[in-house]
Amino acid sequence: MRFVTTRGRAPATSLEWALFDGLAPDGSLYMPESIDRWAPEELAALPSRSLVEIGIRTLRPYTAEEIDEATLGSLVTDALNFPIPLVEVEPGVHALELFHGPTLAFKDIGARVMARLISALHDREAPTSVLVATSGDTGSAVGHAFHGVPHTRVIVLYPAGRVSPRQEAQLTMFNAEPSSNVRAYAIAGNFDDCQRLVKAASADSALLERLRLTSANSINIGRLLPQMVYYFHAVAQLARRTGSDRTFVSTPSGNFGNLTAGLMAKRAGLPIERFVAATNVNDVVPVYLTTGRFEPRASKQTVANAMDVGNPSNFDRMSWMYGGDVGAMRRDIVGSSHADDEISATIRRVYEERGYLLDPHSAIAYLGITRSGFDVRSVPGIFLATAHPAKFHDVVEAAIGHAVDKPAPLVEALSRPSHVMRIDASLDAIKERLFDSDRNS
Ligand SMILES: Cc1ncc(COP(=O)(O)O)c(C=O)c1O
User: Fold this and answer.
1) What does the alpha-carbon distance between residue 249 and residue 381 come to, in Å, rounded to a whole number?
2) What is the mean pLDDT of residues 11-22?
3) Is 159 in the pocket of ligand 1 (CB under 6 A)?
4) Which has the minimum average pLDDT: 127-141, 288-302, 360-374?
5) Does residue 58's CB lie within 6 angstroms of at least one atom of ligand 1?
6) CA distance linking residue 147 with residue 437, whole number of Å
7) Ligand 1 centroid to residue 293 C-alpha, Å
8) Cα–ligand 1 centroid distance for 201 (angstroms)
9) What's the rounded Cα separation, in Å, for the pair 172 and 153?
């Protein structure tokens, strides 16, 4: 399978190069040149397939020319080693819980598979170095995803004093291990400084001569492809439980990678009737679906802050998939946007009435499925629960009036001795760390 760019001004390339580039040379995003369609009998057999089997089947067409079947099998088994259960929250409304991985969010899934794809595609003496800037969450998902993965080294840069104590504990968890391949540095600066340093390092020719450097950011196709897997797994579980393989899916969206992966799964033949693009008040895509005009704007701060995105990068991919035809996109997607007070009231109400605790992002997805006029009693609905409520405990605790239990991975991160490593916001400081980790590998 070749990977083309959404702008079409750079040559099609292999999975390996699409993964290492992240952003394509023409400044746009990679997509597979075609979406492999599942045969009707494969779809009929979906309910009897395990998560790992579905993962292998989903990824095989995109990897087959570069990664052999046995390697793919073991990397998927290793990456998807936690459950992704479908839980009925109320009649006809199901949560797909994507937060049982090591950093308690859906990003674990894409990042863990991507780390192992990079490792499997490794063909040089030197390890691949991954440099990531983070405002908190992505860095720990990437760090945990690569931890212990052969032929890889990760350096995470986060702004000192600007991440929460829980985020910092998760970010720095591996700093105390002498031989860890993951290091997180607190940069004396803000998130923009961290991003600027990653960009500067990625453009430094002397550095690139010595190191194989990549940035595992959210637009990487290596994170998107594995996200298709859980849509198949959701429908498999729904069909097992209810006998229905028809469904509506609500995806809480910020940068729209998660929804794009769902659209790809639908193209592959998955019987999803329609998607809800569920957002907070950063609603440029719901507005586009109504007006036909895509008008990016500065983001607004909300209680679902991982979705505070005013110019979603994956809109390019969505638009490419529909050839820019908003009418065609409307047939597959309906928009739904929700303000902070509605999100908090929903967390409280669903907890009181159903005993189910939503994080703010999952609450938006829940609102998307329950407020879009679908008859979920005849065609069941699924919403993606993308983060554990303990990750956003401030908002959740304010909504329900008491503390949220900490799940085991968070207890472990918080119980480790803190090992914060501070460095200057300078390219030289980053280079020194990159060369150091290269020498120690
Ligand atoms: C918890 C959570 N939910 C939903 C999203 C939105 O996903 P996407 O950016 O793929 O639209 C994010 C993005 O970071 C997130 O962290």
Assistant:
1) 6
2) 94
3) no
4) 127-141
5) no
6) 14
7) 23
8) 26
9) 15
- Joined together, the tokens standing for residue 28 give 């746009």
Q: Helical H runs in 28-164?
A: 40-44, 51-63, 69-79, 107-120, 137-146
In the predicted model, what is the mean pLDDT of the chain? 94
Task: Pick the atom of ligand 1 nearest to 387's CA.
Answer: 1
CA 211 to ligand 1 center in whole angstroms? 31
Cα separation, 103 vs 31, whole angstroms: 27
Q: Can you list the domains of the chain with their CATH numbers? A: 83-104+221-400 (3.40.50.1100), 127-210+416-439 (3.40.50.1100)
- Determine which residue's CA is closest to atom 13 belonging to ligand 1: 306
Q: State residue 125's pLDDT score.
A: 73
**Among all chains, which residue has been given the structure tokens 């952003």?**
23
Name the closest-CA residue to atom 12, ligand 1. 306
Whether pLDDT at 188 is above 80: yes
% the chain with pLDDT above 90: 86
Which has the closest alpha carbon to 127: 155, 150, 157?
150
What is the DSSP track for 226-272? HHHHHHHHHHHHHHHHHS---EEEEEE-SSSHHHHHHHHHHHTT--E
Pairing mode of beta strands 86-90, 93-97: antiparallel
| Closest approach atom of ligand 1 to CA 260 | 10
Residue 220 has pLDDT above 50, yes or no: yes
Question: Hey, what are 275's tokens?
Answer: 């998607």
If you measure from the C-alpha of residue 114 to the centroid of ligand 1, how many angstroms do you get, rounded to a whole number?
Answer: 17
Question: What is the 313 CA–ligand 1 centroid distance (Å)?
Answer: 12
Ligand 1, atom 9: nearest CA belongs to which residue?
255
